[in-house]
Amino acid sequence: MIILTRSNGIYSSPRIEKYIEYFVLREIDYLVVGWDRVNSNLQREKTVYYRKKSGYNVGGFKAAIDRFKWMFFLFKILFINRKTISVIHAFDLDTAFPACVFKIIFKRKVIVLFDICDWFSATLNNQRKIILCIFKLMEKFTIKHSDEVIICEPERIEQIPYKLNRPELVVPNIPFFSDTNFLYHDNNYKFDNKKITFSYVGGFSKFRMLDELLNVAEKGFINLLIAGYGNSQIEERCRRSALFDNIRYFGKVKYKDGLNIMYNSDIIYAMYSKSNPNHYYAAPNKYYEAMMLGKPILSTKGISLGSKIVMNDIGYIIDESEQALSHFLLNLDESSMTIKGANANNLWKEKFMMYTSNFLNSKYLEIIN
User: In terms of DSSP H, where are the helices of 106-231?
Assistant: First the structure.
């Protein structure tokens, strides 16, 4: 049996969803272990949830203790299933570390895949030194005892200061679907005006320039379709902003619903902050989703993602400020959006459409077998 695990609700996690869909298609036995962080009684097939309530994007000792309690819960699930586990595909440090501890303590012939969505110590760069030191030691231990390390972009290897047991596997955040018939133009996402429609679907954080996006939308410069969860203040702001005729807020949505929201927009918003070390190496799903959907993308100048957008001529980059966003909107022309959207879709068809399928049916299948 394969265990897939990440410390979130596995509700809209495309990096995990593609493996689940693959297991279903291939009739591979699996179990998912996730964390229902808002204790909302999430339910899904072949999934076990940790129900302890804990916020997103929070730090300090309390958050660290909550995370260690989650790791202990995961360890218990691994122990219960110890006789049937063959592979543990663990996303991020707080699942890969207990997986490696389990493997060593019980001397099980289990393959541990350490799939790095974000490098943990970079995420905790503003935390107390003792917390940072503990997690760095955990990172070193986990890198040493993992059988495979998976990163989402080649440049992410620069974040790992330890020697790997074998060359890393690069698996970008590329969508994987057997068909895309779920995409359609929906009148529920249309506005009764001719303004350009922006979409944002994802985690709510103060580092994503979401307040600035809501500001320009409330001033009437654009239409906005927004969905996601995380920072409670931004969630509340979205609920208030939804009173405007040109803004619609959908809360937390399933992955395919989120893709449909983006499909019904003109441009996909994916801003980041250079002050966050992980954001410099940002490898968002939106980059590849925009290609699949044939939409231009807007992101941050001065990060690796921005360089790729410019190099492939599939979107736009701006500085991190409301002034830069407003200036961009005043000078945005629809013909360039059409060209960049077409470039994005061509790049998808030429380079990335079969990437995930090829990986799953070759290297990944070899590993799990």
Answer: 120-123, 129-145, 210-218
